[in-house]
Amino acid sequence: GWFRRLLHKPKPSLAESSLNAGRSTPSSPSSSSSSAESSVSSPSMSLVRSVRPSLISLSDINASGSAWWAKNYDICICHSEVYLEMVEELVSYLESQPESFRCFLQLRDATPGSAVVAELCDAVQNSHCWLMLIAPGFLRDPWGKYQMHQVLAEAPMANGRTIPVLKDVERKDYPKELRNLCYIYMVLKENSFRQIRDTVMR
């Protein structure tokens, strides 16, 4: 009925409308909920309050432009080919979690025929966080170093979003470029996988 009342209601002046807008903020949560259940004086407020979280579909979330869905991937995995088998286990673990993390694994997700460097740059830009498996092969591989520098160039001050994971690397060999970042030291695979998941969730 608010639309019918709006049609028959005389339009207020500009000063009155700005004054009413300042008064429309509810004083307490209880008063806002009670007014939503009874009669709603503002049409815009009635539209907002009529939305139920249970009615929001996946397509609505995608179209809403929320921060979570603004990126194609949750985690971009940077690694050397020596540890590909372990990385595949990690990706399988993360994607099977209740959160269904969206992981980018280049050998699996890169578009055939596209440039390798372009695919990496696109994945880095379209991921919420980046995981680097720092292993001896990663440090000796020019491609591994390129991945690390690409991540750092994308977000040099991304606190908590760049996640270094050390495997079979001593502290003295930890890359100087990452010295300002805390890391996960992988000893027991199951525990480390769980720690990586918790870190991504935070």
Automatic annotation (TrEMBL):
Segments traversing the membrane: none
Region described as Disordered: spans on this chain: 1-41
Protein name: TIRAP protein
Bias kind Basic residues: ranges: 1-11
GO cellular component: cytoplasm; plasma membrane
Source organism: Nyctibius bracteatus
Organism lineage: Eukaryota, Metazoa, Chordata, Craniata, Vertebrata
Domain of life: Eukaryota
GO molecular function: Toll-like receptor 2 binding; Toll-like receptor 4 binding
Biased composition (Low complexity): 23-41
GO BP, sorted A to Z: positive regulation of canonical NF-kappaB signal transduction; positive regulation of chemokine (C-X-C motif) ligand 2 production; positive regulation of tumor necrosis factor production; toll-like receptor 4 signaling pathway
